[in-house]
Structure formats: C-alpha cells, structure tokens
C-alpha cells in the first residue's frame, strides 16, 4: 500500500494532479479573458479566433500545453497500470513530471520568463521520456 492505495492504483494520483492542473489553467484563462473584456482590452468576439491580450494569451497557450506533452504522460500511466508494472520508479517519475508541469504552468501564467519555463519543460520532457524507457524495461521483463 502506498498512501492508502495499492501500488498499482497509486499511479492515478499523479494523473489526478495533472488533470487538476489542466482545470486550473482553464480557470486562469477564463478569468483573464473575462477581466480583459471588462477592462476594455478585448471584446468577446476577439475570442472567436483568439486575439488574446498578453496576460490571457499566456494562459490560453498554457491550456494548449496541457494537451501536448501530458498526453504521453497519461498513456504511460495507463500502460504501467495495464501490465501491473507500477513501482516506486514509475511513481517517482510520474510525480516528477507533474511537479515539473506545475512549475512550468506557474511560470507561464505569472512571470512568463521563457528560459525558466523552458527548464521546467525540459525536466517534464525528461521525466516522461524516462517513464517510457522504464515502461519498455517493464514490458520486456514481464514477458
């Protein structure tokens, strides 16, 4: 048991955390868009084909980011669970990915320093890449 869950279902906690991050990014984007309209920086029709002001543009781009690299994360987590290969390494890599994505989103939607954001992106990229490498090892050893 890890944190009250079996070792196989524990892989879903970082998945839930990543999903929550996606919802947070949506809420930030929405609130910034509403604020831009109220401040007269944008009109509702500006969002038909997004022409966001800078603050909501960063949030909108971050929402899109939550459906790019994280897709590989979601599939890896499901794959580990499917073959019963969730172990400490898989969990550490999954949580490392989520921590990197949270940091990336925070930078993206606050200070938006590209070099800092890039470092967090690379950390998540490496984590999910290692998850897939570890999954391949688990797949080979499961046969």
Overall mean pLDDT score? 90
Name the CATH superfamily classification. Membrane associated eicosanoid/glutathione metabolism-like domain
Q: Which sequence of SSEs, written as H and E, runs from N to C? A: HHHHH
Question: Shape, please?
Answer: elongated
Quaternary structure classification = single chain
Q: Largest sheet, described in full?
A: none
Number of helices: 5
* Low-confidence blocks of residues: none
What name is given to the CATH topology? Four Helix Bundle (Hemerythrin (Met), subunit A)
The number of distinct β-strands equals 0
What percent strand?
A: under 5%
The CATH class, by name, is: Mainly Alpha
C-alpha-based Rg, rounded: 18 Å
Kindly describe this structure.
With 143 residues, the chain is mainly α. It has one domain (16-142): Membrane associated eicosanoid/glutathione metabolism-like domain (Four Helix Bundle (Hemerythrin (Met), subunit A)), CATH 1.20.120. 73% of the residues lie in helices and 0% in strands. The two termini are 25 Å apart.
